[in-house]
């Protein structure tokens, strides 16, 4: 989504809601193109090679690619991906799940067998987290409008980060987001005061 911020103005809120509603109207097409982008960006990673072998996904049209994907790649649970995630956590830098390096791991909000699960967190994850927060704020402002130039106060949970054996930083998704470059740019664009950590 390429939308310019207007200091958190009603114009920006209208733009992001319009963008989301346009995307929702064409959800099937957006989903097909999103799958294509993901597969092209991550062509050659170990997990996808397991299913696609030597098929060059960049040479297949979007509709056929979607059919291939649904035929070849089974629904996966976290347990199916956990061996790859554990290798990443232990410091394996080979392209296992993504071509972009994974430097952060998020903790799931739920538990399995009494422990939280690791979930890879990338720069793309930070950008999509910003989109989700921005969209939620726009809809919230539509229902509970603030005066022009008014202020809001948000309390959002953030936790301490720690390192894996392989040196990756682990924390909640919101913790990673608030520590990211994307968030610092967003704060500057919104002319917000710096956040306090308790």
Question: What does it look like?
Answer:
- Mean pLDDT is 84; it is low at 1-8.
- Helix 1 (10-25) crosses helix 6 (123-143) and helix 2 packs across helix 4 (62-72).
- The protein is built from eight helices and four strands, in the order αααααββαββαα.
- The chain is α+β, with helices and mostly antiparallel strands.
- It has one domain (10-190).
- The protein has helices at 10-25, 27-41, 46-52, 62-72, 78-89, 123-143, 173-178, 181-190, and strands spanning 104-112, 115-121, 162-163, 169-171.
- The radius of gyration is 19 Å and the shape is globular.
- The longest helix has 21 residues, at 123-143.
- A four-stranded mixed beta sheet has the order 2-1-4-3.
Write the layout of secondary structure elements.
Blueprint: H1 10-25, H2 27-41, H3 46-52, H4 62-72, H5 78-89, E1 104-112, E2 115-121, H6 123-143, E3 162-163, E4 169-171, H7 173-178, H8 181-190
Parallel strand pairs: 1-4
Antiparallel strand pairs: 1-2, 3-4
Helix pairs in contact: 1-6, 2-4
Number of structural units classed as domains: 1
Strand order of the largest sheet: 2-1-4-3
Instruction: Calculate the mean pLDDT score and round it.
Output: 84
How much of the polypeptide forms β-strand, as a percent range?
A: 5-15%
Describe the global form.
globular
Structural class: alpha+beta
Radius of gyration using CA atoms only: 19 Å
The ordered string of helix (H) and strand (E) elements is: HHHHHEEHEEHH
Sheet with the most strands, sense and barrel status: 4 strands, mixed
Organism: Salix purpurea
GO molecular function: acid-amino acid ligase activity
InterPro entries: GH3
Protein name: INDOLE-3-ACETIC ACID-AMIDO SYNTHETASE GH3.10
